[in-house]
Amino acid sequence: TINRVKINADEPLKPQPVEEPHPMDRAAAKNAWHDFTRIFGFVVAVIVGAWAINTFIFQSFDVVGPSMEPTLEGQNGSDRVLVNRLPVTFARLQGKPYVPKRGDIIVFKSTALTSTGQPEYVVKRVTGLPGERMVVKDCHLYVHNQEHPEGFDPYPTFKNLAPNDKEVNLCVAGEGTDITVPQGEIFVDGDHRYGNYSTDSRNGGGRPSLGTIPFENIVGPVGVRLWPVNKIKLF
Q1: Is 201 a catalytic residue?
Q2: What is the pLDDT of residues 132-171, one digit of tens each?
Q3: Rounded to two decimals, what is the model's pTM?
Q4: Torsion of CA 198, 103, 87, 77, to 10 degrees
Q5: Which of 60-64, 123-127, 153-157 has the lowest mean pLDDT?
Q6: Distance between CA atoms of residues 69 and 165, nearest Å
Q7: Is 6 tagged catalytic?
Q8: Candidate list 67, 110, 198, 201, residue with the active-site label
Q9: Mean pLDDT score, 97-121
Q10: Out of 14, 78, 96, 124, which one is annotated catalytic?
């Protein structure tokens, strides 16, 4: 059976309109594209922001190993520290090297003990500045400079040592260390300076040594211990 449609012969046929996308469909597609670009822009901003913060402002590190005990714990529930990058950033913007102060705890890059040649991050304390002679003798570290040609022990002047520091550090190891710090470099050692717990700038007694550290290798000073929460501390 064929369905027949009656046609009024007295009136001309009217063309049917061509189907077109509804204007709301184009608007929805445009909104979807805007949503995608906003999300993409947000992700890019987060990535760039995180990179900028780590490079120029703050950077966090986990302490590994016993070399900075008892000031920083690196074995049982390792401490996490936040390094202040701002002093290094400001110095470089002025075209100058960043020079830490004696007693600062710093993080720096070193390739001295790596087999791959890739730098590793190391945390130590600054005890010697450019031009100073560093000597370990009779269980003490002595700094010889223009103000103290006879030498002085810097550790009693440090205010951010752990309360039990003297109980742990009965002697400074590395007897025979005798180094004059080159210009543009610093002398560092670990707070766990008794025994062979810290590899640093000391080289006496056949110790493995990192040598003195160039300014350009310094990441920045440790500003705060973030973890564990019951040991949060400003340095």
Answers
A1: no
A2: 999 999 999 999 999 999 999 999 999 889 999 989 999 9
A3: 0.76
A4: 50
A5: 60-64
A6: 8
A7: no
A8: 67
A9: 87
A10: 124
